């Protein structure tokens, strides 16, 4: 079972060994397929749950929620700009819980 310290250490090790660009690609790829990350003799599989990816054009805030080997949810935030791609902030990594809410939409009667 992974904890937040393990997940952050794994992502930091990946960033240190491969660079910021590779970290961005790795995090992006979680959205398509579970990604295995290895560090200090440990293995953790990161699996996509939800995300707000960036769109072409100006810059915007992005985030990704994922499982790290169990049912615990983690969120990492970043920034996306068309020219620079994604920049993920490892200091933003946090454990989160899912919250269900009901959205209400009002449509005109006529």
The largest sheet has its strands arranged as: 1-2-3-4-5
Give the topology string: H per helix, E per strand: HHEEEEE
The tally of beta strands, per DSSP, is 5
Low-pLDDT segments, ≥5 res: none
C-alpha end-to-end distance: 55 Å
Structural class: alpha+beta
Helical content stands at 10-25%
Strand content: 35-45%
* Major sheet details: 5 strands, antiparallel
What does this entry look like structurally?
- The chain is an alpha+beta fold.
- Helices cover 24% and strands 42% of the residues.
- It contains 2 helices and 5 strands.
- The protein has helices at 4-18, 20-30, and strands at residues 35-39, 42-52, 60-68, 73-81, 85-96.
- Strands 1-2-3-4-5 form a 5-stranded antiparallel sheet.
- Strand 3 and strand 4 form a beta hairpin.
- The radius of gyration is 16 Å and the shape is globular.
- The termini are far apart.
- The model has no long low-confidence stretch (mean pLDDT 84).
């Amino acid at each position: 079972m992974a904890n937040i310290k393990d997940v952050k250490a794994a992502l930091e090790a990946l960033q240190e060994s491969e660079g910021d660009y590779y970290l961005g690609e790795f995090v992006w790829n979680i959205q398509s397929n579970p990604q295995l990350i290895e560090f200090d003799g440990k293995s953790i599989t990161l699996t996509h749950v939800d995300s707000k990816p960036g769109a072409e054009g100006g810059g915007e805030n992005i985030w990704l929620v994922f499982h790290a080997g169990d049912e615990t949810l983690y969120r990492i935030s970043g920034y996306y700009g068309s020219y620079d791609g994604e920049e993920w902030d490892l200091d933003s990594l946090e454990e989160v819980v899912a919250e269900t809410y009901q959205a209400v939409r009002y449509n005109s009667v006529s």
